[in-house]
Design a protein that fits this description.
- Helices cover 37% and strands 25% of the residues.
- By secondary structure, the protein is of the alpha+beta class.
- It has an 8-stranded mixed β-sheet with strand order 4-3-11-12-13-10-14-17, sandwiched between helices.
- α7 packs antiparallel against α8 (288-316) and α9 crosses α10 (337-347).
- The longest helix has 29 residues, at 288-316.
- It is globular.
Length: 360
């Protein structure tokens, strides 16, 4: 069945523009929450800076982040794919492949599927990438991430719909999500020690203690769910081997601070199908697919990997002098209209999409 994944859920402006190209943007936006502002906070000192995506109104028709869980987008895309004549085979595991000058045969146990090209978009543990014998370069973060959902409306405590709390011991990332009606469900992410048993980390007592660490005593809330996952920073050494290509988490993974993983995967997909379509229609040589690799791999390294690592380092910095300097830099950026817009162009991923388009 379609996956119900509770991790991804923040969509940047260029991603919404791309969903319009697929004819599903309006439907998806109707079930999400528009988040035009986001904050960087310090656990002790409160708000360090607040950014307004409204300043991007001359750059995009969607100057905000749209918050909605990924699992609510997949049924919309599924229906659109079926309407376009596509097929989805559930419970059909990829087990291997062979390719020649004419096409690819994908194996799923005893079954064989033939095509001109094969795209591995099968996640961070990609079986397609492993069959390609492509190295997944990078590292795994030492901590485990805990995701807790809560019903307390954080807006009444001064939080924007997306906020990040810097703290050398325990940073926090906050996202509001649609849930039945306003004020929504608030998703909160913490780092946790991997030596603590899973059942302890996801217990109500442990989760409530983490939430009480930054909420006022007057807060009253329910905890509908809690889960954990490990986080990696990795990029495939190559996104292409002949007629086989990689996209999304199969090609690259990163930490969630900045909400760039899901978005960059969708950016891969739209970039690739535009080129793959031309090749399959005989409008371009298949060397055009190498441009996809150059564009998406380079921008992932320059923007997604570098940006998400930088975001995490900002929140968890332990050296008092370095910490003060970095937070002062954030304040200065937010206070300068030119620097603030440049920062928002990067963090909204508009800059990365334009950078990719400029790579020959």
């Amino acid at each position: 069945a379609l996956t119900r994944d509770l991790r991804a859920g923040s969509f940047h402006p260029p991603t919404m523009e791309m969903l319009d190209l697929l004819g599903v943007g309006e439907t998806f936006r109707s079930i999400g929450i528009k988040v035009p502002h986001w904050q960087i906070r310090d656990r002790k000192d409160g708000v360090v800076a607040q950014f307004d995506l409204g300043v991007l109104a001359d750059e995009t028709p969607y100057p905000y982040r749209l918050h909605c869980e990924q699992f609510k987008l997949t049924p919309i895309l599924y229906d659109a794919l079926l309407a376009a004549g596509g097929q989805v085979r559930f419970s059909t595991a990829f087990t291997g492949m062979t390719q020649d000058d004419d096409g690819v045969i994908a194996e799923a146990g005893a079954e064989r599927f033939t095509g001109r090209y094969l795209v591995g978009a099968d996640g961070g543990r990609s079986a397609v990438r492993k069959a390609m014998a492509v190295e997944f370069e990078g590292f795994t973060w030492p901590e485990r991430f805990l995701v807790v959902s809560m019903t307390e409306d954080l807006a009444k405590h001064g939080y924007t719909g997306n906020a990040y709390i810097a703290d050398p011991e325990e940073w926090v990332a906050i996202f509001v999500m649609p849930h039945l009606g306003p004020p929504g469900l608030w998703r909160v992410v913490f780092p946790t020690d991997t030596t603590i048993p899973e059942e302890v980390v996801t217990s109500r007592e442990f989760c409530e203690a983490r939430l009480r660490g930054f909420l006022p005593d007057t807060a009253s809330f329910e905890i509908p769910y809690a889960s954990t996952y490990r986080v990696h920073q990795r990029v495939a050494k190559n996104f292409r081997l002949g007629r086989v290509l990689l996209a999304g988490d199969a090609a690259h993974v990163n930490n969630p601070l900045g909400a760039m993983g899901l978005n960059s995967g969708l950016h891969d997909a739209l970039n690739l199908v535009e080129k793959l379509g031309k090749v399959c229609r005989g409008e371009a040589e298949d060397s055009l697919l190498d441009r996809y690799v150059r564009q998406r791999r380079q921008t992932n390294i320059e923007y997604v990997q570098a940006g998400s690592i930088r975001n995490k380092q900002l929140l968890e910095e332990r050296d008092p002098a370095v910490r003060r300097q970095r937070l002062d830099e954030v304040r200065a950026t937010a206070a300068d209209p030119v620097k603030a817009k440049e920062h928002l162009m990067r963090t909204s991923m508009i800059a990365s999409v334009r950078r990719a388009a400029a790579i020959a």
